[in-house]
Amino acid sequence: MLCKAALRRRLLEILPEIKWIDGFSNYVEERATNFVSGITPDLYEKEYREGAGGELNWEIRNGNRCPPKMNALHSSSALVVNSFAPWKLHLNELRLCDSLGFCSLRFEAKVPTGLGGTPPHLDFLAESPSSSVAAESKLTEYLRPHQTNFAPAYSHKSWPPAVEPYLIMMRYLQENPSTFVYLDGAQLVKHALGLASRFDQHNVRLLYLFWEPENSGSYRDFDIHHKEIEQFSRTVTGASINFKWKTYLELWEEWAQGDSTWLQLHASELRKRYALTI
Q: So what's the pLDDT on residue 269?
């Protein structure tokens, strides 16, 4: 709640006249007001409409009719669009996980595992002829309780030997579902297995990107989250899907230090919106 309240105060500082959806105090009436400058529907809308997350439509959640998730000031999809949609116009400059030369960037990218049902959805997938970076992005949702579960089919399928470290993590989480308080390790394992099914021996990195406040060191929750990520990372080291992680604040600082004027301005606007204390 502290994070959402701080995000609300910041948005009101930027847009004092912003309108909220009646009955939903943290959902903006106009989706465009949830974005930084330069974000147009053609940069993201089609991909989200084709996804399974219900980000753009009113839907029934927990028995209630709720507004589109992307209209929430705490929307992780709005965060990832705000951060990466402008890169679609500058793909030749994008550098992620030490990779360059990207020729495409797609939000809500599906990576089927071959097990049926709804496939894992990546927040974005940036591809080049020789490598790819797939991202899972979080704003505040990782601070909520989550369930660790795998369908039985995950244990019955024959997976490539190169992803054995992720299978070790899967089996550990199946036996110890309360291992992680904040990190959704099961989701990351499913992403990795979907990526391995799609790309075979292609050079792929799974990037875990997450927001935290500037004073995260004052709260034990964020320290626990970091330790959980480190534990996950150690366990999956050596797999063909190379796991990386970074905070959004670190990412924007890297962008701010670049030579590109548009990127420096973009990083500044992102920090103005999301860099805050709680």
A: 98
